[in-house]
Design a protein that fits this description.
Helix content of chain B: 25-40%
Number of strands of chain A: 7
Largest sheet of chain A: 7 strands, mixed
CATH superfamily of chain A: Aconitase, domain 4
Largest interface: A-B, 44 and 53 residues
Shape of chain B: globular
Number of strands of chain B: 18
Largest sheet of chain B: 5 strands, parallel
Radius of gyration of chain B: 21 Å
Structural class of chain A: alpha/beta
Number of helices of chain A: 8
Distance between the termini of chain A: 36 Å
Number of domains of chain A: 1
Number of domains of chain B: 2
CATH topology of the largest domain in chain B: Aconitase, domain 3
CATH superfamily of the largest domain in chain B: Aconitase, domain 3
CATH architecture of the largest domain in chain B: 2-Layer Sandwich
Strand content of chain A: 15-25%
Strand order of the largest sheet of chain B: 4-3-2-5-6
Shape of chain A: globular
Oligomer: heterodimer
Radius of gyration of chain A: 15 Å
Order of helices and strands of chain A: EHHHEHEHEHEEEHH
Strand content of chain B: 15-25%
Distance between the termini of chain B: 53 Å
CATH architecture of chain A: Alpha-Beta Barrel
Chain lengths: 162, 422
């Protein structure tokens, strides 16, 4: 179980991890500045298992993988949005940050509510609302990457990209 | 049969490919830069068993230092040292001669029909030469370095058809703002954009780069223009490679947008999103602390020529400062020979070395709290150039030059008129 952190539409990668803080590969360093432009207290207050809920086009802008890496390093369990920008979505899948598209859950949920997410079924339970929601299913190829735990693990398992 | 995107994938795979299908293809080029290479190298290392520890082809693997060059901090210098060491080990030449998206085409690495992946979202710029090129994250690029392959979902395509003629004082950049205004910042998400129409056919390659560069600001996976005689002329002398002159054949576009350029005026994209577009007349009273002319969107020779034409013999306003960053060494040298750099320096601007300059807010002109910039960049996001309370307005190179003279956002048409009558 975790708490929901709600964000709006078009949350771009510059506000998830600004260019001035991403000159590093140190995940702890990236976690420290996660979302600092729009939620200055987020990095200090987020707890392992918490869930980010975004609107449309979450993660738009730069291709910097530091953005999903910083969210993952914070202990966020899953990002749920009405839609994701393509590169952010692909980066998240690649590095093993769970991402789900669920319009209804985002529209119904409020900041700070308690939530449980079953990543295998895509069933999202808002405990405070006593409501469940079904996330959109993954495409078959992406589901295989997610199942393997990311693109690196997928290739290691398959022996090559196929 | 199909869109230019489908034609490229079909040509590459030797069979008819249709939008929506997932394909695995061999890529022609792989690129990363000083910020994205470290994580790409980490991913590449994890596939040592599959790759034998070597990149798929060192001549087709490209590392460009442009984001923080020369290094501005010890942290950046250390990462760059480690990337150089990796490049030496893999027999890859580190390119340090400008912005990746200018250097890759200039060196003849981008040809029509090629498929290129780069660890930078503006890799879509290369579609101006009829390539399918897209930005990815570092792990995908590490995989491409290791395997020479990547996977794609062949995208559906949006067509933007542009007709008419550019009015006086209106440039390719202004048209891109109209595109983003109409399509929206995610209207092309997961989709390719193909630019067609009589105006596009007459554009220079530099202006086509500006168009395709801005595809990602609509969420576009790629932005493409059908290669033609203008493309071939530009590539002449840059590459001896043979390439297919592919074009759309009976394309099925998901959606078509029409823009009549004749009806446009200079435009500004106001903070903090690129679709926050207004005619320049709505914002000409806004004071500007820093003007920045450069980037992969508008740091080319024709951009510098337009700005130098406005600034020639004049001095920038004392309340503002101006930073000029040519996009590549080739452009820098040409601008020097043509006297543009001297014009900028005499006007009071600071001319910096080729690279991304202050576009990512790490060096060479960062903004203080509450400051405002007018730039020729592609993004105006919160915090991008420094403090998160600073504001970024986007405009054309002509608007940038006029603004530098006035110290507030200024309509370039007044200055171009003076220039024309002089």
């Amino acid at each position: 179980m975790g708490r929901i952190w709600t964000l709006g539409d078009n949350v771009n990668t510059d506000v998830i991890i600004p260019g001035r803080y991403n000159v590093t590969t140190d995940r702890a360093q990236l976690a420290k500045y996660c979302l600092c432009e729009i939620l200055p207290d987020f990095a200090q207050q987020v707890q392992s298992g918490d869930v980010i809920m975004g609107g449309h086009n979450f993660g738009c802008g730069s291709s910097r993988e530091h953005a999903p890496a910083s969210i993952l390093a914070c202990g966020v369990r899953v990002v749920i949005a009405r839609s994701f920008a393509r590169i952010f979505y692909r980066n998240s899948v690649n590095i093993g940050l769970p991402v789900l598209v669920c319009e209804e859950a985002v529209l119904a949920s409020r900041d700070g509510q308690r939530i449980e997410v079953d990543l295998t079924t895509g069933i999202i339970t808002n405990i405070d609302l006593e409501r469940t929601f079904q996330a959109e299913p993954l495409t078959p190829f992406i589901a295989r990457i997610v199942e393997a735990g990311g693109i690196i693990a997928y290739i290691q398992k398959e022996g090559t990209l196929r | 049969m199909g869109t230019l995107t489908e034609e490229i994938f079909s040509h590459k795979l030797g069979r008819t490919v249709e939008q929506g299908e997932t394909v695995i293809v061999e890529v022609d080029r792989v690129m990363s830069h000083d910020t994205t290479s470290p994580l790409a190298i980490q991913a590449f290392r994890k596939l040592a068993q599959q790759s034998g520890g070597r990149v798929f082809n060192p001549r087709r693997s490209h590392i460009v230092f442009d984001h923080i060059i020369p290094a501005a901090t010890i942290a950046a210098a250390t990462l760059q040292r480690d990337i150089r060491s990796f490049a030496r080990e893999q027999d890859i030449t580190v390119l340090q001669e400008g912005i990746c998206h200018q250097v890759m085409p200039e060196r003849g690495y981008v040809v029509p029909g090629s498929i290129i992946v780069g660890a930078d979202s503006h890799t879509c710029t290369y579609g101006a030469l009829g390539a399918f090129a897209t930005g990815m994250g570092s792990t995908d690029i590490g995989v491409a370095y290791a395997t020479g392959r990547t996977w794609f979902r062949v995208p559906t395509t949006i067509n933007i058809e542009i007709t008419g003629r550019l009015p006086f004082g209106v440039y390719a950049k202004d048209i891109t703002f109209e595109m983003v205004r109409q399509v929206g910042v995610d209207g092309a998400n997961y989709r390719a954009i193909e630019y067609t129409g009589s105006l596009v056919e007459g554009l220079s390659v530099s202006e086509r780069f500006t168009f395709c560069n801005m595809a990602i600001e609509m969420g576009g996976k790629a932005g493409l223009i059908t290669p033609d005689a203008i493309t071939q002329a530009w590539l002449h002398g840059r590459t001896t490679a043979e390439y297919p002159m592919l074009s759309p054949r009976n394309p099925q576009y998901e959606r078509v947008f029409h823009i009549d350029a004749s009806r446009l005026q200079p435009m500004i994209a106001c903070p903090p999103d690129v679709n926050n577009v207004v005619p320049i007349g709505d914002v000409t009273n806004i004071g500007i602390d820093e003007v920045f002319l450069g980037t992969c969107t508008n740091g080319r020779l024709d951009d510098l020529a337009i700005a130098a034409g406005i600034l020639h013999g004049k001095t920038i306003h004392p309340n503002t400062r101006m930073v000029v960053v040519p996009a590549s060494r080739e452009i820098y040298l040409a601008a020097m020979r043509l006297g543009y750099l001297e014009t900028f320096i005499q006007a009071g601007a600071t001319v910096e070395n080729p690279g991304c300059g202050p576009c990512i807010g790490r060096h060479q002109g960062v903004l203080a709290p509450g400051e405002r910039a007018l730039t020729t960049m592609n993004r105006n996001f919160t915090g991008r150039m420094g403090d998160p309370t600073a504001e970024i307005y986007l405009g054309s190179p002509a608007t940038a030059a006029a603004t530098a003279l006035c110290g507030h956002i200024a309509d370039p048409r007044e200055f171009l008129a003076q220039h024309a009558t002089n």
